[in-house]
Design a protein that fits this description.
With 405 residues, the protein is of the alpha/beta class. It folds into two domains: 3-207 and 321-403, Zn peptidases (Aminopeptidase); 209-319, 2-Layer Sandwich (Alpha-Beta Plaits), CATH 3.30.70. It is 37% helix and 23% strand. α1 packs antiparallel against α3, α3 packs across α13 and α9 packs antiparallel against α10 (286-306). The structure holds zinc ion. InterPro entries: Amidase_Cbmase, Bact_exopeptidase_dim_dom, Peptidase_M20.
Length: 405
């Protein structure tokens, strides 16, 4: 099966020899290598290749201008030291599923597209799903132009360096209007399928999720000469807030994580003047998430006051609950339900995806492939070859059911 050779080609791109994880950040050399690979796969199959204004790549079989196209795909970029499967599994499986369809001699009745969405993880510029958000009009051109990476390079400069025109970005409703269904295959980012003993699942919904920045401002001073009683140490209130986040999430059946922190002046022998912590939180329902965030913020304000520290909380991004298109979901269940070897449970997820962004504009669905470790955004993320092949065949069945009948 072509899956293996494609997978092997992509495997070394952007891999850190130190961590074994991937560093395929938007518009860096590793990302451009992945994009070159995508184009090469498209052209090798005689597909019509195009890069859109927002940095997404498309490969078409049939003319998308006919409308009602069926599109599949995912992303090729990664988080810092990410695993091999998050994103690439969906793109590689898409090409492999197309090969499978051709092998079956299936005749298309609708245009079929494969897409690689740009900058899905947001690892470089801090906002996830930039390519699909821009296309769907969920990110303004002004806000996109202001995105800046850790080295001070703006998104426009990064796009320009890669040969793109940053002034051309923006909503692309004509493109979306041509798509009748989008199906994203993705490695599962949890253990639901492992626990249920199934290879492949169908997504029901994406939990509402967001990112909040907590700025605790105190007073820098000497770590050796400042009496404990005289300190205004923001690290203390930050540390207590981290514990409060865990507590609130546990109580509510949600998740909350402080995974990134910036400290000023960041010296071993200095009491910090500023501790900036980023909170990521997700919950099955909106009201649960509101309760969790409200509880964490209330606790943080109390801790800040206790230590004479100022606190500012800024919501940096937010994605409401995404219910995938029920009709399309039922259609997938019907198509896959005819395969006696495959049980396909329907499951929710706490992870965001381009499919979630697009669900506001077009019917979307997702397939998950079992990940025995349940780990994601880490080199420990995994999927067996047999399960990857089962994913490809399920995707081929879905594409055949949607685009060939
Ligand atoms: Zn992903």
């Amino acid at each position: 099966m072509t899956f293996h050779s494609m997978w092997a080609e992509l495997l070394p791109v952007g891999r850190s020899s130190a961590s074994g994880g991937y560093r395929r950040f938007a518009w860096t050399g590793a990302d451009l290598d992945c994009r070159a690979w995508f184009r090469q796969q498209a052209e090798a199959r005689g597909l019509t290749y195009e890069a859109d204004r927002n940095g997404n790549q498309w490969a078409w079989l049939g003319d998308p201008a006919r409308g009602d196209a069926v599109v599949t795909g995912s992303h090729l970029d990664s988080v810092p030291d990410g695993g091999a499967f998050d994103g690439p599994l969906g793109v590689v499986s898409s090409f492999a599923a197309l090969d499978e369809l051709r092998g079956r001699g299936a005749e298309l009745t609708r245009p079929l597209g494969i897409v690689n969405f740009g900058d899905e993880e947001g690892a470089r510029f801090g906002l996830a799903c930039v390519g699909s958000r821009l296309t769907a009009g969920q990110l303004t051109v002004e806000d996109a132009h202001r995105l800046t990476d850790g080295d001070g390079t703006t998104l426009p400069r990064a796009m320009e360096a890669a040969g793109y025109d940053p002034d051309a970005i923006g909503p692309d409703p004509e493109r979306l209007a041509r798509i009748g269904a989008f199906v994203e295959l993705h490695v599962e980012q949890g253990r639901a399928l492992d626990l249920s003993g199934d290879r492949v699942g169908i997504a029901s919904a994406i939990w509402p999720h967001g990112r909040w920045r907590f700025d605790f401002r105190g007073e820098a001073n000497h770590a050796g000469t400042t009496r404990l009683a005289d300190r205004r140490d923001p690290m203390l209130s930050y540390a207590e807030t981290v514990l409060a986040a865990r507590r609130e999430a546990e109580l509510a059946g949600a998740v909350a994580t402080f995974g990134k922190i910036a400290v000023e002046p960041n010296g071993v022998n200095a009491i910090p003047s500023l501790v900036r912590g980023w909170l990521d939180s997700r919950a099955p329902e909106q009201h649960t998430l509101d309760t969790v965030i409200g509880g964490i913020e209330k606790a943080a304000r109390a801790y800040a006051q206790e230590h004479g520290v100022d606190l500012a909380v800024v919501r940096e991004s937010f994605t409401p609950v995404v219910e995938f298109d029920h009709a399309l979901r039922d259609e997938l269940a019907r198509i896959l339900g005819t395969d006696a070897d495959l049980k396909v449970p329907v499951l929710g997820t706490g992870a965001g995806h381009d499919a979630g962004i697009l669900s506001g504009s077009i019917p979307t669905a997702m397939l998950f492939v079992r990940n025995p470790t349940g780990v994601s955004h880490s080199p420990a993320e995994s999927a067996t070859e047999d399960d990857c092949v089962a994913g490809v065949l399920a995707l081929a069945d879905v594409l055949e059911g949607l685009a060939c009948t």
